[in-house]
Amino acid sequence: LCTDTQADLEPDLGMLMTSAHLEDKALFLLQCAMEENCLASQAYVERQETPYWQQRTRRLLRFTTAISNTGSADFRPFIPKSSWQWHACHQHFHSMETFSHFEIMDNTGKRVVEGHKASFCLEDNDCVGVAPHYDC
Description:
The protein is of the alpha+beta class. It has 3 helices and 8 strands.
């Protein structure tokens, strides 16, 4: 479908790069992330195969993401707000299962780890030249 109006999402790479840091966390502190399928697949294998999996630690690459819509149309999740999924662990709704997907590659181009960001609140919070329209 060709159109002159569409959303164009652009990540703030500077914010991502300046906020990136490593953090070690025990799996028992990551149960909400586990519920939302935010951990690497090996964490779920450990949960199945290791009796004391909660004591194992994971090294996380943490970073802030900010996305600008530089397009000419609003960005909207595919499902209406009334159908968003409630996650009791984090006490918020998710408007889509995966908002963004991240991969870390080694110097040969081989993927060494991947992750995703589920969306829970997409809102207007840094509007230039237009009034904010969407909030949580």
